[in-house]
Amino acid sequence: MEMCSKEEIDLRISLGNISKYERDPISLEIDKKRMVKIYIRNENEKPRSLLNLLKTTNYLLNLLIDTPYDINELRNLYLFLKDRLKAVRKDLKRNEEDCSKIRLTILGLIIVFYIY
Question: Where are the domains of the chain?
Fold first, then answer.
């Protein structure tokens, strides 16, 4: 399961629109497995599956847990997470799969992020 489509990855690489959180922390090389779909107002795009959204949400919140406490770093991470979780919420809203347990789990995790 990818957190970002191949088309978006290719476009963002060509535009240089890669967050430091989407790079390998040691080599700083682009890590496609760490790339997360950005929020774009595009209603024609197919939403990600609920399991993919759950995986993405868990991945994003683990970034918060793994980040050392530094006010500037946390501010940058907050802005990154806010954008990516907005994309998750958009896909969650448009997804037609019927599994309310996964939906509630994702929404609960997002709520915890905003309360934190």
Answer: 6-115
